[in-house]
User: Fold these one by one.
Assistant:
Number 1:
Amino acid sequence: MEIKIKKVTKLPEVKQIIYIYNKIKDLGSGLLSKAEKNWLEQQHKLSPTELVSINQYDFQLMFIKSEAITDLNQQLEAVRKKGNELFGWAKKLKSKEIGIVNLAWDNDFVAAFIEGFALSAYKFDKYLPQEKDEVKVLSIAVWSEQTKSKQLKDLQNTIKYVFMARDLVNEPQNVLNATNLAAHFKNNAKQLGIKVDVWNKSKIEAMKMGGLLAVNKGSVQPPSFTIMEYKPKNAINEQPIVLVGKGVVYDTGGLSLKPTPGSMDSMKCDMAGAATVGCAVLLAAENELPLYIVALIPATDNRPSLEAYAPGDVITMMSGKTVEVLNTDAEGRLILADALHYAKKYNPKLVFDFATLTGAAVVAIGAMASVIMGTADNATFEALDQAAGYTHERLARFPFWDDYKELLKSDIADMKNIGGRYAGAITAGKFLEYYTDYPWVHFDIAGTAWLDAPESYRGKNGTGVGVRLLNQFFQQYIK
Ligand code: BES
Ligand code: ZN
Ligand code: ZN
């Protein structure tokens, strides 16, 4: 479903209207009868957080009473969830157009409410033509004095690219291979004035990306390496922010094969990092952010075959470092390492990598938050913390002591590609650190990129995690 959001200056002439109010008298005189007003007041006195509906012939009105704000971030999230609840209502009524009349909330709350509402409209129904939602486009007309048109436009774009990221994650690997993933970003980027370069296998060989090539060895499909460069004339930063995304379009584990149930069956999600960074750059460009941002996306699948790389192999990475591969299922770090090494040539201000990197991150904290660690300064981590709280795309910072590096020592190469039994998310991060020489944060989104069961506005399966977080981080960065 496509979501259109526009600001209106007149009460929208639609059948379903949501009123956000504080005092009954704010609702004016023409809208409700005396009896209706009394009833509404009574209902909200009984339970102020409940939604109250009033039907007037074929009009359905919903009333939300604003509450006193205690914790801003918590309240924003509560409002998103209210948006989710109300989407359920609108869906039942098969609404094509919804009106929102805001008489009480600040901008941020209006935006969060619409965000929760709109994000709930996502469904991966491409392969269900008979069940495809009848409603293809849902328009949201917003009457809200404080809210600016530009803010609503930005929000509409955010929804669009979160949906795109979800679509990419949900698309199976028999459709979305490494070549098609690159083509997808190329096609979408060109329209937005983003410079795109897609390397094919021979270029990747010429560039000696040994990690990416090793993982790709077992595959029938060639790898790809996508470079997206968004450099607006009014960029406030000379050195770019570089985003790197893990683009493993399918992870069987390779010769260190994964078991199927609850493990390999969802591994089409292993390019979620690529989806996040690619879509975040598209969103930044569509919102015309004055920021110089580069995205690097190494992509391949990881499969067993006669040619596949094997435990015990020693490979030479693009940086020249050698790696003893002891588990072919620890493939993400190999392809990311080459991309992180390549990022050095941009002399970046900051590098973020997003990757569904380790089961250990999921074991540690589940789907509540993404795991982060790295070498960026405290101000960066604080800014991330703020963006995470605001968007509720929560982050949990892990320790990153050099002691963990010890666990990667190899007798025959510069390092092994696995640590030991413990601290798997951190040793994966430590592996990556070898290929960086700039301020950097690693985001392990293995727990947050995919949901087996639906959860409010985050939906089911691909969540598109990271797109809203990055957008918020960028918005703060330009302020
Ligand atoms: N893609 C997986 C990590 C993953 C697990 C993503 C669960 C999403 C959900 C990654 O490539 C992997 O297999 N990692 C191994 C590393 C291990 C062999 C050191 C893991 O976490 O088991
Ligand atoms: Zn793996
Ligand atoms: Zn993987």
Number 2:
Amino acid sequence: MEETIKKEKFVIKGLSGKKTLNGSVKISGAKNVVLPIMASSILFEDGFTATNVPEIEDVKRMGELLEQIGIGVEQRNKNIYSFKIGKKFNTELNRDISKKMRASILLTGPMLSRFGEVYFPHPGGCVIGKRPIDLFVNGFKKMGAEVRDENDGYKIFTQKGKLNGAEIFFNLQSHTATETFLMAGVLAKGKTILKNCAMEPEITNLADFLVTHGAKIKGAGTSTIEIIGGGLLKDKKIEYVTMPDRIETGSFLILGALSAKKLIIEKCNPDDLEVVINILKESGVRITTSKNEIIVENNNPKQIFNGVNIKTHEYPGFPTDLQAPMTIFLTQAQGESTMFETIFEGRLNYTENLVRMGAEILVWNPYKIEIKGPRKLKGKKLESPDIRAGLAFIIASIIAKGESEIDNVYYIDRGYENIEEKLSKIGVNIKRI
Ligand code: EPZ
């Protein structure tokens, strides 16, 4: 049963710019890969077990959606879940849950290619932009489906109960659209060619997982992906190990640069964050990396970071999900920096709260801001508008002088596992009330 969303808040005592955090943090499994992996359970004749699954709200919501479709979801242990196809199915996605999570749209591809129909409400999620779904509607039509726009949702179905493979050119590189049609192609009749695909590491990871279960997928991680329909093999008994969350990794890397004497980030994959590591190093941050570890340290307390101009961009460019945490970094960098958000309109709205805390930010237009630094921040009462700005407010509160309150921590819990334990362990004074 879905828990009612608790209105909790974090209270954080700031370090007034001192760099005293110390220790290590273990990165959890990636939210944005485990959600499509969970959705792919609809493609299986049997099921599979996933490990290193982050215990976050979005995973619980996706589990609830799957249960209501007819997939058995069982938590075997902490961070270990198994998924098993059931006997009867419901092809209507739960409205309340879908409205809370944009990633519910990932279910449409597997459901259409498995059951030949799906009803889903216009998906909700963060307030970072209007979140259109034209790429999905146009793609399913190309694969032979009909789309009926009902009250505030869509009924999509195919007369023959199957999708036909098709050639689809995405007008925009879309992370979840690429994943959705990659999964749809696995059970579609014939070959599906996807062009102008997104190239995030989560997409490659999803494709690799499905290929180990017999899917015929080529080109994941490049802009053209080819899928030959034909289904998945049974009884492959291969466990899926969730890849590390590169956005959580980047968030802790930025926090470490701003507030740690030395921070060891474990169980991560530095290769997924090259652009972030390069930019921070060029700004003057001391970072060393090894296979599954990143170490950031501030030996020289007088160290200043040079301002940088950043533009968010599809992978492998600067990730939009690290735009807000990085803006906090820029408020502490020397001189003038700019942040140009090219993916989502509305994803810079949080900056007015930073100005309230003492940052000097000039809004050029809804996509571009100029930040002058370094500026001392003062603790304030804040409300997290979305998952990533919520984490950015945590970082800002930690470097600020005085106490901050961050409301609406449900958003932060959507994307970060045990965040207050991880922060307390390295020396942050944070309480959840
Ligand atoms: C994924 O969202 C992530 N979510 C987002 O992370 C991330 O911010 C985003 O990719 C960009 O990296 C998951 O993977 C579950 P898009 P997605 O489709 O796929 C436009 C987080 O905090 N677009 O790549 O929904 C869209 O408006 C979340 O973890 C259309 O125009 O993003 C945006 O401008 C937030 N029509 C652009 O494409 C469509 O049909 C890229 O969005 C679909 C998208």
